## 1
Amino acid sequence: MSDKYENPLCKRYASVEMQRIFSDEVKFSTWRKLWIALAESQKELGLLITEQQIAQMKQFAFDINFSVAEQLEKETRHDVMAHIKAFGQQCPSAQPIIHLGATSCYVGDNTDIILHREALFRVKKLLVNTVERLARFAEKHKALACLAYTHFQAAQPTTLGKRAALWIHDLLLDIEQLDFVLQGLKLLGCRGTTGTSASFLSLFEGNHEKVAALEKKIAEKLGFEQVYPVSGQTYSRKVDYYILSVLSGIAQSAYKFSNDIRLLSHLKQVAEPFEKGQVGSSAMAYKQNPMRSERIAALSRYVTVHALNPALTASAQWLERTLDDSANRRMVIPEAFLAVDAILSLYISIVDGLSVYPKVIKQQLSQELPFMATENILMAAVKKGGDRQLLHERIRIHSLAAAKEVKENAAPNDLLKRIVADKTVGLTQKEIEEICTAENLCGRAKEQTEEFLAQVQKMLSQSQNKELLGIEVEINV
């Protein structure tokens, strides 16, 4: 227990892997890697920096004296200067050249891009595994006829596998957007105070080629092919907006899925995992609430609203640099990633443990099936020589009468008996039964699912996606 507020995203929801990405250990060791890359590149381009200085910096790249840095930040009110001085205390021979020519955003912004890229890879891994789990589910239930709804009113039948294909399709769109953003990520580079690289041009005595080469070398050492072609002191905050837009899109897809599961749970057609000792309600002992789906909904709203922050931040930047983005970004972006991590972990856990109740599904479909079959019955009766207009009126009358009995007296749906008994319609019991099989009314739901899953499997079999498969998730509470 603690007497201080602790972020529930870390304490209750997000994975250890995502928390590690945004930890102080990773953040500040990345700062040090950037300082080392800067010094190495400057040395390679002719500045008087020694191997001993670089070796000393590397020695303490992951051995961060946090307590010293914390005390120095209280004195300087500047996090980057505090860590420069703390690093310098550990590397006295390198102290004169640490952060040479750079400004705070050299470590701050470049680190953000590096961490955001790693976090996006983590999200993609979760997405690909969610799709793979859903594809298995869709394949298993591709022919299981169920009642489809529009406006949450009974419509035509579909199959449970086809419904799962809709969930998958949303996630595939999210993967496309994520890949697009990932491919476009670049480092800020080393641009100095206003993005003109003036300090580095001075260090290299006016040699523009060396300044350009410096950025390229640093990018390569950090695993990037390019830097953004122009910038102020920071990279464009629109990049943050694009990243949060991807996370918002994933949250929207998961929210839709969670709502569907909640509706289907109410209908008793499916049930999300409910563990042996799990309690559904402190008052109602019998309750088995769809807790995981509800949590997805709650966290998804959080992410979707968070996506507004970078939009406003990007809009409000002043000229080459202002600092009203800093406090906002250090909360909003990591929290959005942590929440999406939790959302997709919950998504996978639901799919892995989702119970399906075919008998309930069949019963509810059978109750509505006679109404849905009336158009097919009408066509069959016309083919046998009936008058379309007369038949339509007779079927309409029978449909209204049967619906009234169902609603007012909770009676079984006897529409088909009424139609068989009507000599005007002219169809036998056997003919009616053949028309009214669910399989005849599901259209191409099964075939569409099969065709779509073939595309999904092709995507999953690509090497860059295949190597991401096999993730296991853990739900903390």
## 2
Amino acid sequence: MEVEVLREERIDKYLAEELDISRSTIKKMIDERFVLVNGKSAKASMILSLDDELFVKDGFIKEANFEAEDIPLDIVYEDDDLMVINKKSGMVVHPGNGNMSGTLVNALMYYTKNLSNKEEFRPGIVHRLDKDTSGLMLVAKNDKAHDILAEGFKNKTIKREYIALVCGVINEDTGEINAPIGRDVKDRKKMCVTSENSKKAVTHFKVLKRYDDYTLLRLILDTGRTHQIRVHMKYIGHPVYNDPVYGKAYDDFGQFLHSVSIDFDQPITHEHLHFECDIPQEFKQFLDTLN
């Protein structure tokens, strides 16, 4: 799989953070030439450049034997090639450091044997949502579908929209946030708007409703940076409500951010598909208190 280089950093440290795999495992993968930079093998101490092409080959022995777990799934759509899942808030997408069970991947492995294997540590997973972001996700059931869907995300032919409740009142009916995002040097688990070791990030928003102290937004992304909506909303002074990382947590539900719709062409039949799913009950109940 291809891994986008977002900052200049040691390759072992960078991959450990981006893939959520232990640094010792990453070092073994590098030593055994499962990691390529610009088509060539690398050393763990190599410093990546923003224009490097970074590729991680399949076939390395997994860091752990991921267990299939009987966890309920909200399946919005399924065919021979893919599934559309409505992921609940609080569910981690794939196993990694500190999260080896209870993830979407554990649930998918119990539900079906048919999952793409393009990303060894993340069977079936074409894209991700943050742990506490709810809503629609695509899952690939074979490698051909995975490749085509991944290309669709890369070329922006797959369209996704989000609903978010943000703190404060936004006066503009629509807006665009164009601000580059990179890793926060003070806290490596966070992202921030910065001109250093960053990538272009563009978020469009439309106001759906204004409350006394909050604004309900519909958002579309031109780019897919890590934590993009959460970082951009904090940047303009309107953090997503209940965001424990970029704002303030009021309860344990997680940030009020929901992947509400997805548009794409079925990768094999080319049929155009569109799906929407309502915001979670906790989100809806809080909005009712505001009314």
## 3
Amino acid sequence: MEHIELEQYILKYGRDIYSFCIFLTKHKQEADDLYQDTFLRAIEKNDIDGMANPKSYLISIAINIWNNKKRKYLWRKNKADMRYSLEEEVVEQVADQSLPTDEQAIRNGELEYLRCRVRELPEKMRIVVLMHYMEDMSVEEIGRLLKIPVGTVKSRLYHAREILKKKMEENQHEG
């Protein structure tokens, strides 16, 4: 991959890949590392097909790197507790910077509540939700990239939607 090609991929997909990394890792420093590692691995492999879907390919690289890092961490520490809080500055970076009207403020509040609930999902569900809704990938594409059956993707999406629907309803009744 030439320097110019890499720049084009970063310009075209960089923001989306970074947002995905933030939601996947739930921590700015981890997201920064994962983002860099993703593009480094893409350079090393040098097999991005410009005619296919480079964004999906880059996301699959990020997921594979993240899963490998988690396995190594769990093996070394023999613990499963990798919970991080999303720093406020990350939310500000990802959020729209325009001044909201009253309706937009309410909608933004609901969206932020939903984002927080998505971050609380079990990782297997969170990954498919992010890939499907944030990255607009089909269930077939998600299944292929994660190397799981399409039915499993559909099941995870269904269960995640049910959990999120219940939490959103609870939030409406509280507010």
## 4
Amino acid sequence: MEEKIKFAIIGYGKMGKMVESLLRAAGEEVVAVIDDDVQWAQQWNSFCTADVAIDFSMPAVAVDNILRAFEAQVPIVVGTTGWYDRLDEVLDKGRACGASMVYGTNFSIGVHIFNRMNEWLAAEMRQYAQYIVAIDETHHTAKKDAPSGTAITLAEGILRQYPAYTRWQLTAEGEDVPPQTIPVHAHRLGDVSGIHTVSWTSSEDTITITHNAHGRQGFAAGAIRAARWLVNHPHTICPFTETFQEFIHH
């Protein structure tokens, strides 16, 4: 019989609640649910007993949460985005103390497939200079960072495959962008879980690929898969995309 894993949840917004719901429905043990500094103090001892933590908090506190997990020697899966300007700092500290962390802009299986399609299409489009690309993303009004981490991942994937583009830029609809720049449009609307569209447009037609999340369950389930994998791969620090095939079969 597979040994039970003790989970901690950091961040108790809609994603944190979805993670908790899936874990409890599966009969898993949740030893701590932490959403602010008071709860960190109250639940620190319980948190330290966790086998793995899953963070869907806020960009402003994500790094502090990660460093607390490092201090407690609790492996952590980080689904929060908007903190990657400090990624190098976090990676250096994690490697120095032998921490375990998986981080990603999106843990959905469908989004991973979508990212691969995006890079394939960008590589194909190098032959067709008449097409120009744009990225459009829509999320719920409570999402703090813009553009989304997933949109940034899409833009970076295009940059890797299409050297004529050298940067991306968050842009208002109808706003011109400098040459060699990918425009990224961000919208905040209602309770939308996440819609991402990449469009390649010429004077003759438009080629579009879209991922539309029907809810948050796919993101939460993917983070839980990553957490199970990480428990069995201590002292590993890597992005979700690096070992995706292992995650989905774990």
